[in-house]
Amino acid sequence: MNNAQSSSDRIPINLRTEALEQLLVERGLVDPQVMDTFIKTYEKDVGPLNGAQVVAKAWTDPEFKQRLLDDGTGAVAELGFKGPQGEHLVVVENSSAVHNVVVCTLCSCYPWPLLGLPPAWYKDPAYRSRVVREPRTVLNEMGLELPKDTEITVWDSSSEVRFFVLPQRPSDTEKFSEAELAALVTRDAMVGVAQVSA
Amino acid sequence: MTATIDFDIDGPAAPPRSNGELVFEEPWQSRAFGLVMSLHESGAFTWEEFRAELISAIAAWEEQETPSEEYSYYQCWVTALEQVTVHNELVTSDDLAGRARDLALRPAGHDHDHDHDHDHDH
Q1: Are residues A36 and A131 in the same domain?
Q2: Does residue A52 surpass a pLDDT of 70?
Q3: Rounded to an integer, what is the distance from CA A182 to the centroid of its chain?
């Protein structure tokens, strides 16, 4: 460990953060207004609803769905969703034969523009290591029981590729509008630890 | 910067928060997040530089034989931010440690995350 770490180990984390903020603002490297806008945006505006709209459109518009599977980043940009950690988006489609689940084994790579910031469990060392080794058990523990003959594919996100799951459209939703469908889609379904139900 | 859209807060099109959880558990976490986003946007470091530091901070935590405390993602995030700002010569580690010690010496009642009520009206 170098100095930045060892010299600050015993200082409470909130003070380390405050020291960073003070020094960076004083030196004109961070504009507090810009910083507050980022925080507000991610707390309030960027959330899984973006991803839910993408899923609902893919369920109702076959041409969009094809573009989404061919070029995830380009297709979601059509809906205005882009930004940090949205580059190199790859969409993987669930079927009755294959269920996809996403992890970032090294840190917490996650498609922010579509899903907001990752939930605590996604960043947890236990999820990151176990879902690769024993996905069926981990999914069971998270409340998702898949048929035995459904194959589970685990996708490891990285800085090069962010994976996003296109869940299966639930049955009996033929008459649902796109907005009604979007309301059914949960964040967990788009990470692949849940399914969408009507 | 980020894609934003107008969507309903209530009703069927509201964000699915029922399976969500608080993004930030404590104020310092949101400050640390905002610092990284601002510095990245202004080009103070690349995302890859920050991510590499974050990965090594997380790995360092995981390699401890007897973890001294519960895993905290944002604690690793702050460590990564310290590393990348020092490495890119935005601050020195002495500056950071010195300022944090000064902050710790504030009179009681002033040692919490305080006074972040910046004016949002413009």
Answers
A1: no
A2: yes
A3: 16
Q: Which of A50, A107, A180 sits opposite B55 (nearest CB)?
A: A107
> Residue B67's pLDDT band (boundaries 50, 70, 90)?
low
Look at residue B48 and tell me if it is in a domain: yes
Q: Which domain holds residue B88?
A: 28-104
B22: distance to nearest CA of chain A, Å? 8
Q: Is A109 a catalytic residue?
A: yes
CB contact under 8 A, B35 and A24: yes
Which residues on neighbouring strands pair with residue A100, listed in sequence order? Answer: A153
Cα–Cα–Cα angle for A126, A167, A39, rounded to 5 degrees: 60
Residues from chain B that touch A52, judged by Cβ atoms under 8 A, are 16
Judge if ipTM > 0.90: no
Task: Quote the domain boundaries for residue A25.
Answer: 12-44
Give the number of other CB atoms < 10 A from CB of residue B57.
23
Same domain, yes or no: A22 and A38:
yes
The answer to the question of residue B110 being in a domain is no
